[in-house]
Design a protein that fits this description.
heterodimer, A: 270 residues, mainly alpha, MetI-like fold, 2 domains, 12 helices, globular, B: 241 residues, alpha/beta, six-stranded mixed beta sheet, 8 helices, 11 strands, 22% strand
Chain lengths: 270, 241
């Protein structure tokens, strides 16, 4: 008799092995997070929320990450569409460049941005002649966030466009719809789950940005001190404020991932 | 029309005429270029060379540099996979072409309602495209192509997803529609019944070329294996008829 390849149940050692690995991984991730939550009481958390350092960092982070995500959507969507649907010389080079910030250490990105947009930089010196300074401003925070988080959106958007069958565009054209109305009435609604997912991941990355921001925008409370920078600064003095900000970041990150995972699951197929 | 284009494996080259009110049935093995030919005519694939004319209107002429974009060709096309917009309701799908043409809303409601009744979809007008069965999607695609009053009708296996009775009703309706609208129509099919009940003329495609073109009886007399199987339903070498 031949070997039985199709068994109803997995062998016991596989089940136990998988269980042990999953348990270890969950403990590994959840222990540091719980450590943060247990270090402060709810009253301390609420009191810290009114601390100007915490409040300023929270507002600045949410505002800059929202603006950078909006810019990323406006710039990234047409770029992703062109790269998904059209062939042009150098397309793969452009695509590789877009992906570069994903693997670049954020401090390198910050230094590069400083050398490009700083007072003496390639582009920055031009603006400085007109009295406009970019580095160490809130604008620099937004530029740094866009630089590090745009690949997350474009990669996801391009994949969504590529997965969409061209027959829908063809059908719309054959019914008299030119390219632009077709894009807004047919293509965008069909890929919106992917685009929203990409935008949320970009927003989350922008919210957690640290290295490029501190190098390029500095660490000035109320102007460039975002939540990750405020946590770093508070660590040297007010640990409660640092923990409060960390807890807020964890809650926002968890909500974002949960939203992407549960709310958008199967959304595109509906 | 006469068109020419390089496909992946071969050169598609076809020249034929379909008169007003006439239905041409295109048959051929899978991958013979039937659907590509429909897409070329509809303007969804650019031909390499040739000319396409509907009546007096020139849609494509490589010699004179004329290429009317697909969205201005006024051709009704039913896709093999139906291509019903999944996020729109049946009504919105059928109304799509009329809305693009800025037809007044009361007229849209009237024309769409009439066609939905014709294809027995009036009770599903509010259902989204992705919740329809294969047959319902096919009828939606048909209604969507017909509602714009096209000057040419291109149908890629238009009744293949319907049950036998619905196929018969739809063929009869399509036949009447083409005759009363007096427009040319090209039907791609693998079904002998479609060919027999719809076709005024028939074209047989093989590797991008129309190797035979004529009426059904003329083509039936040909001795190829493919044609024998198409008409008889069995292999030529084991046929007892």
């Amino acid at each position: 008799m031949g070997r039985r390849y199709f068994q109803g149940k997995n062998p016991l050692f596989l089940t136990i092995g998988a269980g042990v690995l999953i348990t270890l991984l969950v403990i590994f991730i959840i222990t540091p997070i719980l450590g943060l939550f247990f270090r402060i009481s709810f009253e301390q958390f609420l009191a810290s929320l009114s601390d100007p350092v915490v409040w300023n960092a929270l507002v600045l982070s949410l505002v800059t990450a929202s603006i950078s995500t909006l810019v990323i959507i406006l710039v990234g969507t047409p770029v992703a569409w062109v790269n998904a649907r059209h062939h042009y010389p150098g397309r793969e080079i452009v695509d590789t460049l877009i992906d570069l910030p994903l693997v670049l250490p954020p401090t390198v990105a910050g230094l590069a941005l400083l050398l490009a947009f700083g007072r003496m930089g390639l582009i920055g010196s031009f603006f400085y002649d007109y009295g406009i300074s970019i580095a160490f401003t809130t604008l620099a925070v937004i530029i740094a966030q866009i630089f590090v988080s745009i690949p997350f959106y474009i990669r996801q958007a391009r994949a969504s466009f590529e997965q969409l069958d061209t027959m829908y565009e063809h059908a719309a054209k054959s019914l008299g719809s030119p390219s632009v109305p077709t894009f807004f009435t047919i293509i965008l609604p069909l890929v919106k789950a992917g685009l929203i997912g990409g935008a949320i991941m970009s927003f989350a990355r922008a919210l957690g940005e640290f290295g490029a921001t501190i190098m390029f925008a500095g660490n000035f409370q109320g102007r460039t001190q975002t939540m990750p920078l405020a946590i770093y600064t508070a660590m040297q003095g007010d640990l409660t404020a640092a923990i409060t900000l960390s807890v807020i970041l964890i809650i926002i990150s968890f909500l974002i991932i949960a939203f992407v995972k549960f709310k958008l699951r199967g959304y595109g197929e509906r | 029309m006469a068109v020419r284009r390089d496909l992946r494996e071969y050169l598609l080259e076809a020249e034929f005429t379909v008169r007003q009110g006439e239905i041409m049935v295109l048959i051929g093995e899978n991958g013979s270029g039937k659907s590509s030919l429909l897409h070329l005519i509809a303007g969804l694939l650019p031909p390499g060379a040739g000319h396409i004319r509907i009546g007096e209107q020139v849609l494509y002429d490589s010699m004179n540099g004329i290429h009317v974009p697909a969205e201005y060709r006024e051709i009704g096309l039913v896709f093999q996979n139906h291509a019903v917009f999944p996020h729109l309701t049946v009504f919105e799908n059928v109304a799509f072409g009329l809305r693009r043409r800025k037809v007044p809303e009361p007229e849209i409601r009237e024309r769409v309602g009439e066609l939905l009744a014709r294809v027995s979809l009036e009770n599903l007008s509010g259902v989204r495209g992705d919740q329809l069965s294969g047959g319902e999607r096919q009828r939606t695609a048909l209604a969507r192509a017909l509602v714009i009053s096209p000057t040419l009708l291109l149908l890629d296996e238009p009744v293949s997803a319907l049950d036998a009775a619905a196929q018969e009703r739809m063929r009869s309706y399509l036949h009447t529609y083409v005759k009363t609208s007096n427009i040319p129509c090209i039907v791609v099919t693998h079904s002998f019944r479609d060919a027999a009940s719809l076709g005024d003329q028939m074209g047989v495609m093989e590797r991008g070329r129309i190797i035979q073109n004529g009426d059904l009886e003329e083509i039936r007399g040909n001795g190829s294996h493919f044609l024998h199987q198409f008409f008889c339903g069995c292999r030529k070498d084991s046929c007892h008829l």
